[in-house]
Amino acid sequence: MSPAVRYFLEKNPKLNLIDVTNAAHADSGNGHSYFRESPWVSSDVLMTLMYKLSPKDRGLQRSGTMPIWEFPSNYQERLFDNLQKKFNGQK
Questions:
Q1: DSSP assignment of 7-75, as one string?
Q2: Are 53 and 82 in contact (CB under 8 A)?
Q3: What is the pLDDT of residues 33-53, one digit of tens each?
Q4: Average pLDDT, integer, range 11-23
Q5: How many other CB atoms are there within 10 angstroms of residue 27's CB atom?
Q6: Spatial strand order in the sheet of 17-19
Q7: Beta strand pairing status for 61-62 and 17-19?
Q8: pLDDT digit string, tens, across residues 52-87
Q9: Quick check: 68 and 3 in contact, CB under 8 A?
Q10: Which residues contact 28 (CB under 8 A, 6 or more apart)?
Q11: Cβ neighbours, 10 Å, residue 43
Q12: What letter would DSSP give residue 82?
């Protein structure tokens, strides 16, 4: 990633790049079919649209020092815990 692209992404927090490589069933099919095949990817998109949650609040983690988010191996647990906190009024 060029320094200019990295700078742009870091200065525009409403734009989030998400690496779906580690998402369950993300390797199913080609094109954008992974959205339908991967429950992780589809739930992430739906949580974004329904609740306007940030990537961190959806259980994603930063990919090292890059301005890219990724699915951790415990994504489902993190998402569930974060949703419980949100709806139980915890921070």
A1: HHHHH-TT--EEE-TTSTTTTSSSTTTHHHH-HHHHHHHHHHHHH---TTTTT-EE-TTSSEEE--TTH
A2: yes
A3: 677 788 899 999 999 998 889
A4: 89
A5: 12
A6: 17-19, 68-70, 61-62
A7: unpaired
A8: 899 999 999 998 888 999 999 999 999 999 899 888
A9: no
A10: 34, 37, 38
A11: 16
A12: H
Burial (CB count <10 Å: 0-12, 13-18, 19+), residue 6: middle
Statement: residue 91 has pLDDT above 60 = no
Place of tokens 């961190």: 56
Percent of the chain exceeding pLDDT 70 equals 91
Which pair of tokens denotes residue 16? Answer: 């989030």
The angle, 0 to 180 degrees and rounded to 10, between the axes of the packed helices 39-51 and 75-87 is: 20
